[in-house]
Amino acid sequence: MSVRGTEPEPSLQRTLSVALADALTGILDLPATLKGWHQRRRASPAWTVAVGAILLVVALPIATVVLLALTPADNIWPHLVATILPGSILRTLMLSFGVSLLACVVGTGTAWLITMYRFPGRELLDRLLVLPLAVPTYIVAYCYVELLDYAGPVQTHLRSLFGFTSVADYWFPQVRSLGGAIFIMASVLYPYVYLTARASFAQQSACVLEVARTLGRSPLATFFDVALPIARPAIAAGTALVIMECLNDLGAVQYLGVDTLSATIYSTWVQRSNIGGAAQIATVMLFLVVALFAIERALRGGARSHHTTGRYRAIPFQELAGWKGITAAALAALPFVFGFIVPLAVIVPDAATHLDGALSSGFLPAAGNTLLLSSIAAGVAIAVALTLGYARRIAGNGFVRPASRLASLGYAIPGTVLAIGLLIPLAGIDNRIDEFMRATFGVSTGLVLSGSLLALTLAYVIRFLAVALAPIESGLERVSTNLDAAARTLGESALSSLWRVHLPLLVAPLGAAALLVFVDCMKELPATLLLRPFNFETLATHVYTLAAIEQLEQASLAALTIVLVGLVPVLLLHEAIAGGRPGSNAS
Question: In the chain, N or C: fewer CB atoms in 10 Å?
């Protein structure tokens, strides 16, 4: 019994010995094990870290503005609430509502007309209707004021024709007013709704529309009862873009005398030298942006629609001949005339007549600065967007996916808010660097970050990152994941796969993204005005400065340059969004 009782001990010792030996072997083989595990992983943690760093940079201006608003040097919230904010908020809401309503009616109506009917000039008008997007709102505002103001040619000829001698003798609508701002801005921004609504109408099933007509619905009833509810998410998305442009606008509302929140932020910061008050007003604007996203999501209502078949038939056009076709063409052409032809009718003659004066007033330096700054910003934005898109593809974990989406929300931040949120932390870093250099080397470094192009480039990249990310992600989706697996099997890392496999296949999306960002940077005014270095003019600020001193003729060449360069991406965007229905070229 005693002998048998001791038998398990040697077995236990052998088991422990084997376990210790295996553990020791595992420790000795740990480097090889980690290497193999690393090789089996899809991506390095560096991609997740990079996405996190980008998200922090994008969130920096928002956090700065909120913190500065909550802890100002002087508490002026009571003064703002009692005197400034009610009027600014009311005017901002009225402007946004008026512009979005008019743009929604014009954009949706023209999209339905172009999609469902055939009439003379339809295909040409389909392309012409998007051209107003190439003209910045502030340029259109300058043109309409020059044309319709008391000293402009319209009122001058009106007084001459009817013998009026003063403004008291007749009534003429005031262009520098809230109503004038609504009309002018809607005439430029309606293409956002037109493009999204046009694409949605073109994608709708012809069968659904035919069933509605078979059940006795008139064309108008079919539009309101069937087509419009299906297109509601797309129309809501386009309308949200219109409202964001209204919130961001500075040049047009200032020139037209409408003190919105953006204009109030600028005047509080620049004219009253109260950065804390400007930050508090900017916080209110951020709340409006958040509310806009919530409303846009509610308008979408979670609606989804899909085709029950993979077969597509051409949309059954209704032919409009005779006076009906001419009337339809005229109605469809009106938005293009007001948003593009009228501004160009002012700019082109002025640019041709005052060419020498424009060249001598600083056009060439402004054009060179614009080319340099927009090119740098576009290059950096492409690199950042490519990092986000590729990280989402190869390391799409629970953090990277939402973080890459949040990092692209900078487009919703108005330029004035972005400028405040970046200038404060960059100026703080500049002060610390200057203190260190003074104490250590006795040398003052001055404004290294906030007084250079770095701040402006950073603002452009944050604001237009979403513009670059959309075509890059679309291009990456077209690249088969089998190529990733094949490259990794052949020993390529994630970075080398990007360089040797994906980049050659992304030339077109990268070029499109670079062009879109370049043009948006060229047109950007609010952030440029507030963050540019001293004596640094871009084409946008050059036009703004000359228009402010009533010398629009000297700024016409710069304005015309902005418009002509902006035409290229607008036409490309139209071809990409409203090129036709799947399976049909007859949309």
Answer: N
Cβ-based neighbours of 44, under 8 Å, separated by 6 or more: 493, 494
CB atoms closer than 10 angstroms to residue 57: 17
What is the CA 115 to chain-centroid distance, rounded? 26
- The closest alpha carbon to 188, from 219, 149, 143, 153, belongs to 143
What's the chain's Rg over C-alpha atoms? 30
Q: Measuring CA to CA, which residue among 238, 256, 274, 300 is closest to residue 111?
A: 238
- Using one digit for the tens of pLDDT, what is the confidence trace for 297-354? 776 655 555 444 445 555 666 788 889 899 999 999 999 999 999 999 999 999 999 8
Alpha helices in 408-489 (DSSP H): 415-441, 453-477, 481-489
* Confidence at residue 246, expressed as pLDDT on a 0 to 100 scale: 93
At position 205, the amino acid (one-letter code) is: S
Q: Which residues of the chain are under the pLDDT cut of 70?
A: 1-43, 72-74, 204-222, 224-225, 299-317, 396, 576-587
Burial 212-239 (b: 16+ CB within 10 A, else e): beeeebeeeebbeebbbebbbbbbbbbb
CA 145 – CA 435 distance, rounded (Å)? 49
C-alpha distance across the termini of the chain, in Å: 95
Residue-level pLDDT at 300? 62
Residue whose entry in the numeric block shows the structure tokens 């553990």: 23
pLDDT for residue 214:
63
Q: What pLDDT is stored for residue 407 in this prediction?
A: 85
CB 72 within 8 A of CB 276: yes
Structure confidence at residue 42 (pLDDT): 54
255 Cβ contact list (under 8 Å, min separation 6)? 138, 141, 142, 145, 176, 547, 548
Strands 318-319 and 117-118, bridge-based pairing = parallel
Cβ atoms of 237 and 196 within 8 Å: the answer is yes
CA–CA distance, 193 with 233 (Å, rounded to integer): 11
- pLDDT tens column, 160-194: 888 888 888 888 889 999 999 999 999 999 999 99
- DSSP per residue, 497-527: HIIIIIHHHTHHHHHHHHHHHHHHHHH--HH
